[in-house]
Design goal:
- The protein is α/β, with parallel strands linked by helices and about 110 residues long.
- It has a single domain, classed as STAS domain (Transcription Regulator spoIIAA, 2-Layer Sandwich).
- The chain is about 40% helix and about 30% strand.
- It is built from four helices and six strands; from the N terminus they run E-E-H-E-E-H-E-H-E-H.
- Strands 1, 2, 3, 4, 5 and 6 form a six-stranded mixed β-sheet that branches.
- Helix 3 links the parallel strand 5 and strand 6.
- Helix 1 packs parallel to helix 2.
- The longest helix has 16 residues, at about 25-40.
């Protein structure tokens, strides 16, 4: 998995994991979310448009990141969720907590 980070404002961030978000990559994503929030970017959007696969470890990284962001007074939101990732979210009912948004802008605008 490759991971790109964009900081559109002093308090927001977009993380773009590319490839497979599995046990091997989950720690990298969780560390990136934790560091981003610690740097003051409390509203984090994870753009999953180029994430082709998500397993339970990847989902755990997202949930852990959500906890960290909310503890800092922010939020973690998902954008551009593909079919496989959406299926995992729906089967685990995590789509109720990590609501998928169509675009990154939609995710930032959601309140």
């Amino acid at each position: 998995m490759n991971l790109e980070r964009e900081l559109p404002t002093p308090t927001t961030a977009v993380l773009r994991p590319r490839g497979r978000l599995t046990m091997a990559a989950a720690t990298t994503l969780k560390t990136a979310i934790d560091g981003t929030v610690a740097d003051g970017h409390h509203l984090v959007v994870v753009d999953l448009g180029e994430t082709e696969f998500l397993d339970s470890s990847g989902l755990g990284a997202l949930v852990g990141g959500l906890r960290v962001a909310r503890a800092a007074g922010g939020d973690l939101r998902l954008a551009r969720v593909g079919t496989q990732v959406r299926t995992v979210l729906e089967l685990t009912t995590m789509d109720r907590v990590l609501t998928p948004h169509v675009t990154v802008d939609d995710a930032f605008a959601a309140g």
